[in-house]
Amino acid sequence: HSCPMVLRIAELTSFGAGASASTHQPNSKFTQQELPACKPILTPKWVISVFLLVGVIFVPIGVASLLASNKVVEIVDRYDDACVPSNVTNKLAYIQNSTISKTCRRTLKVPKDMKQPIFVYYQLNNFYQNHRRYVKSRNDQQLRDASKANETTLCDPEKTRDGMAIVPCGLIAWSTFNDTYTFQHNTNNLSIDKTDISWKSDRDHKFGSDVFPKNFQKGPLIGGKTLNESIPLSEQEDLIVWMRTAALPTFRKLYGRIYVDLKENDTITVTLDNNYNTYSFDGKKSLVLSTSTWLGGKNDFLGLAYLTVGGLCFFLAFAFTLLYLIKPRKLGDNNYLSWNRNSAGH
Amino acid sequence: MARVRRRLEKLKLSTLYSFALCAKGSTEDHSKIGTAGFSRVVYVNDPDRHEEEGFRYPRNEVSTTKYSLVTFVPKSLFEQFRRVANFYFLVSGILTLTPLAPYSAVSALLPLSVVITATMLKEGVEDWRRKQQDIELNNRIVKVHRGNGSFEETKWKYIKIGDVIKVEKDNFFPADLILLSSNYPDGICYVETMNLDGETNLKIKQALEVTSDLQEDGDFTNLRQIIKCEDPNANLYSFVGTMDYKGMRHPLSPQQLLLRDSKLRNTDYIYGAVIFTGHDTKVMQNATEPPSKRSKIEKKMDYIIYLLLCSLLGIALLGSVFFGIWTKADLRNGELKRWYLRPDDSTVFYDPKRAPLASFCHLLTALMLYNYFIPISLYISIEMVKILQAVFINQDIDMYDEESDKPTHARTSNLNEELGQVDTILSDKTGTLTCNMMEFIKCSIAGTAYGQSVTEVEKAMALRKGVPLGDEIEAGGHKEKQIEESPHVKGFNLKDPRIMDGNWIHEPNKDVIRDFFRLLAICHTCIPEVDETDKVSYEAESPDEAAFVIAARELGFEFYKRTQTSIVIRERDPNQNVADYQYRKYELLNVLEFSSSRRRMSVIVKEPEPEGRILLFSKGADSVMFTRLAPDGRKFEEETKRHINEYSDSGLRTLVLAYRVLDEKEYENFAEKFRTAKISGSADRDEQIGEAADSIERDLILLGATAVEDKLQKGVPECIDKLAQAGIKIWVLTGDKMETAINIGFACSLLRQGMTQIIIALEAPDIIALEKNGDKDSIAKASKQSVMGQIEDGIKQVPTLGQSSTESFALIIDGKSLTYALEDDVKFKFLDLAVKCASVICCRSSPKQKALVTRLVKHSDKVTLAIGDGANDVGMLQEADIGVGISGVEGMQAVMASDIAIAQFRFLERLLLVHGHWCYRRISVMICYFFYKNVTFGVTIFLYEAFASFSGKPAYNDWFLSLYNVFFTSLPVIALGVFDQDVSSRLCLQFKTLH
Questions:
Q1: Most buried of A94, B95, B328, B916, CB within 10 angstroms?
Q2: Same domain for B440 and B430
Q3: In this structure, how many other beta carbons lie within 10 angstroms of the beta carbon of residue B678?
Q4: What single DSSP character describes residue B596?
């Protein structure tokens, strides 16, 4: 049988291997570097068929991914500007003023039918949760183990309050997101399930069930959410979600799930407490409601990437075929070698 | 062996030899003894006294190891961190212990420690091997005098200054000794100094006359001497000292000094007094590291690493600037921007109030973070790959010589990939291209040429001319061989029924023929060895001489026995077929040895009765011999000259044989003159001896000439042909005559039909005339001018590049011209010309010239490979980018100096075309792969930084970071470096241009 694009070196290596064996020299195919090997030669047919194959595989995957992504219904509502009364000029002063009630009402329209479960996220922009100072500023031992409550290394500068260790210490915990949302669906209250929004492993292993918040948010500068000191850390799921720091400065974090199907053109009223300060660093806050598919949330990137690569492969296969048909070239023509170019008049 | 020893026993050989061998050391200034630099005092036979007197001398235990148990860790660590890359990693590793670190300290220190440990392990193993060698050496046994005339076997390391020791034949001297006496009555001994200077010939050392009678063990019971001499130094050829013995003071010279690591030869035993031990010995003082060679790729790699370091610094700076700007912006007029970072309550690293400082700290962090640009395990991986490659080279069955049981041996593995870039091969001829096995193949006696064998050169020439003659003759010769079925005698290939089997008696010039072979049997310095079956074999200084004696033996004039004063030949009576021997004993009167300046050797013997004539037998180079012929001895001059020319055309080495009958009176005159010359201790002693010899070596009668073939090694022409096709230039540097060299060139297809030969030689009549006048300056000037002119002519002949291929030019230059061509102002012109020629042959070149030529070629930035087998090639091998030693006949000197040792020249083809190609490609691809994987990794980290406001947060987990280089990505790369083949070996050989 023939294998046109593959040169079978193994078959060519009768050379030397069968020579008289010496008693002093190891003589095997391995030591003589004559193990069978396969090295593809890039003939036009071979190249074109590989490109075609890749294209054939990639394009359907891309299409499927895009379809899945398109099936996701997503409502994104940016509210950081809208929730500041229009007469307020200094947004920063407004948000830092704890005496003003910051309740805000937003009305969302459901663009398409949404099947439960509907995921509720909050999205922050331009928030560097991946800053080295921020990432490091926590103490995992303290979070896990009640007996290590005084362990606050790395927690700078949120370590202690009046000489007492802060639990949970560190910048991350201190700056936990503290906007809250309640939903109304056509005047009915829409219950939001806030359990099981964090990783199970985090709840079971990283945050102790006997570790309770202490001295938290007692300083002059209050960062974010205050914690109920009677609930153990392993049940403070908002904190756990927040403390799994995001890799990029734009990120979404899960707030809860809604187990109700929504119809097209339904309206949802969101009552939210706009507490979290994103104004000082020009960040954005958005509320996201989204369904999910087998692919996860709404994300066209994967589908597009598959489609692009597959398309490119098809294009190349086509171009090479054309080139091969219009201007064929002998395989292994020595005239094209760099040192033969001159004499070949190229 | 035993017999030889016995026969040599009472030879007083020093009376026989005349020239430099026994030269008395020049009279050095002995008055310096006792002053600074000459302070050593040795109480011979009283070693314990030195300590009492307060002299501190080192022990004889030597250690060549780099490290000891205690110093190993600190010293090798220091060595490690002298490498720029390693030092960088150490610094960044230490920085990771500070809060600056972007990741945990372990992840930086773990790969470093893995790499360092691996390298240290390698160093340790190497040093351990050295230690084993030292232990072996230190525990060698030698006999030491322990009082009362009894010699005890003692380990080398326990030898002390002042000990009297007895060294037996073929053993090494354990320390520097003063020769006291030997088994020869005149206290001489033969010493081989190959380990010291690479010269393979034996040197003669002689004890002082006053001590040479200490012949028995018992003589040393009450021996008391005081030797005062210079302090330890590295000069091998000078020694100043005095010996106080029996109330007299005797001067000591290098002639009495036996150096450690030289070997006692041809002498049963010697007694010597130890004067330098251990590291004081001259050879240890001389010990230097051999020049370490680095391959071009490694040098290039360093550039790349510096480049990467720069780019690393660049992006780190970029990051720091951004970081600084953003950090500063975090706090403006007391307002917190990114409040969640608490810029108001910050450490220095993030403090907006001290943004420049924070920025600088960040720079350090970034340097650590981006160190993935520098492949930390690159060096060690490359080393591992090269060692594995060397293992494969060593195991290649196609480069294994079954005859000598010698595989290829890559001694240094760090030059593997250079093999693939070789542009110029500089080759020695004798022993490299040729086997250095001399075969007596033809002779011309009384103007008649004998010998019908065809030399390889003749075959090649026949092939060149397109005449099928060669084949026919070869076929004929083959048949003849089969018919004869006589076993081939090594060193003898003369085939001529006219003179073989005693047939010479029927030739018209039978007397001349007889004298010719007697001369061959007598005029030499070989030593015969008779085995049980009465067969004689010979120990000769050079293979040429052995070939002569063997030829004489095969033709019925068997050199049988040598005593101090006589030579016995066993002659087969040509008239009878039965082996009936007639013993002729010649009284040996004088030996005038061969030297390169005299280019001849003679012996004076007295014939056995009844003739009883005194004969001078002489053999030498044609140039000196023909001028010394007597007017009536030139009967066959014309024919002989013609034959000699024919022979040297066929690539044979020729010698002219002549003799002379001396009358008693003349001989006595000479003997007297010779004796006085020999005894005189004056500086011009050698000249006087030379003059005396000169006066007697004249008026010779020509007998004929011999031709000896130096056989080409197997497969040499094919190999050279293929290498030439691969575009490799081959230079042959030889000590031979130009004609011989050219013919060998043709034989091994170095020169081809249709090549234009550019010959540069100093044989113009005006220069010869000048030489006769003897004005050195004007000779030099004229010679130089002539060489310049010839080189320029040559350059004009060779078309400039691009016009046509340079294939068809060959440059041949002789040693004298080479001297001038290598002078600073000419050499680049010479190089210009030489690189344009496909083959270059340098004839009559000295070892030093060989090295100089190599250096010159290196100037042209091309990779040079030198190949040679003898001690005279050592310079060349060390100078070249790659030195390849042939582990052949001429001792191990070249092999010791080489980077790769092969058994035969033809293996060079596979070594270069297959392994060179593979190794070069593998290493290059591997290095690229290495940089690729690290740069890719580094860039992802950098890109991530842009999304983390350049705060120095790594994108990956600590463990992943630390294991990335040493574990996750090292094996595939190494496997690629060891196993990858782009084409099979068969294709490499078939398409040489791949090289």
A1: B916
A2: no
A3: 19
A4: T
Cα dihedral A92/A94/A95/A101 (nearest 10): 180
For the beta sheet containing A285-290, the strands, ordered from the edge strand earlier in sequence to the opposite edge, are A74-78, A285-290, A118-124, A251-258
Minimal Cα–Cα distance from B394 to chain A, Å? 9
Per the document, the length of chain A is: 346
Determine, yes or no, domain membership for B983.
no
Tell me, yes or no, whether B569 and B646 share the same domain.
Answer: yes
Q: Which residues of B745-758 are buried (b: 16+ CB within 10 A; e: fewer)?
A: bbbbbbbbeebeeb
In one letter, which amino acid is B142?
A: V
- The CATH number of whichever domain residue B600 belongs to comes to 3.40.1110.10
Residue of chain A whose alpha carbon sits nearest to that of B365: A132
Q: Does B405 appear as a known binding residue? A: no
Dist. CA B545–CA B559, nearest whole Å: 12
What is the total count of domains within chain B? 4
Domain boundaries, chain A: 42-72+296-326, 73-291
> Are residues A134 and B396, on separate chains, in Cβ contact within 8 Å?
no
Residue in B338, B347, B949 nearest the CB of A156: B347
The answer to whether the CB of A174 falls within 8 A of the CB of A156 is no
Residue ending a domain, among B253, B286, B319, is B286
Mutate to test the interface with B, among A25, A129, A140 (most CBs of B within 10 A): A25
Cα separation, A94 vs B631, whole angstroms: 131
Partner-chain residue, chosen from A35, A135, A280, that has the shortest CB–CB distance to B339: A280
- B704 and B800, same domain (yes or no): no
Phi/psi zone of residue B79: left (φ > 0), alpha (ψ -120 to 50 degrees), beta? alpha
Pairs across A and B, CB distance < 8 A: 109
Contact A16 B398 (CB under 8 A): yes
A340 to chain B: closest CA residue: B993
Say yes or no: B593 and B448 in one domain.
yes
Is residue B562 in some structural domain?
Answer: yes
CB within 8 Å: B981 and A20: no
Single residue among B286, B315, B339 that ends a domain in this structure: B286
Is B545 labeled as ligand-binding?
yes
Indicate if B74 and B196 belong to the same structural domain: no
Residues B55 and B84 both lie in one domain:
no
ipTM above 0.95, yes or no: no
For residue B477, the one-letter residue type is G
Same domain, B129 and B203: no
Contact B953 A132 (CB under 8 A): yes
Question: Do B194 and B126 have their domain in common?
Answer: no
What's the whole-model pTM score? 0.69
Burial class of residue A339, CB neighbours in 10 A (0-12, 13-18, 19+): exposed
With beta carbons under 8 A apart, name residues in chain A contacting B395: 25-26, 31-32
The active-site residue, picked from B163, B261, B280, B428, is B428
Beta bridge partners of A258: A118
Residue B163 appears among annotated catalytic residues = no
Q: CATH number for the domain including B889? A: 3.40.50.1000
What's the average pLDDT block by block, 10 residues per block, for chain B (995 residues)? 40 48 46 68 81 78 75 80 75 78 74 81 81 84 82 84 85 86 80 64 76 79 83 76 82 82 81 85 67 68 83 89 86 79 78 83 84 77 82 79 73 74 81 73 82 69 55 39 48 73 75 84 78 73 77 82 79 64 82 72 83 85 81 81 81 82 86 78 68 82 84 78 81 75 76 76 65 67 79 73 58 80 80 80 76 81 80 74 74 70 83 84 86 87 85 79 78 80 72 65
Chain A residue numbers with beta carbons less than 8 Å from the beta carbon of B342 are 157-158, 171, 221
Give the domain range for residue B550: 436-463+489-664+699-710
- Of A27, A134, A247, nearest to B341 by CB-CB distance is A134
Instruction: Answer yes or no: is B359 within a domain.
Output: no
The annotation status of B869 as a binding-site residue, yes or no, is: yes
* Interchain contact, B986 vs A27, CB within 8 Å: no
Residue B205, in any domain of the structure: yes
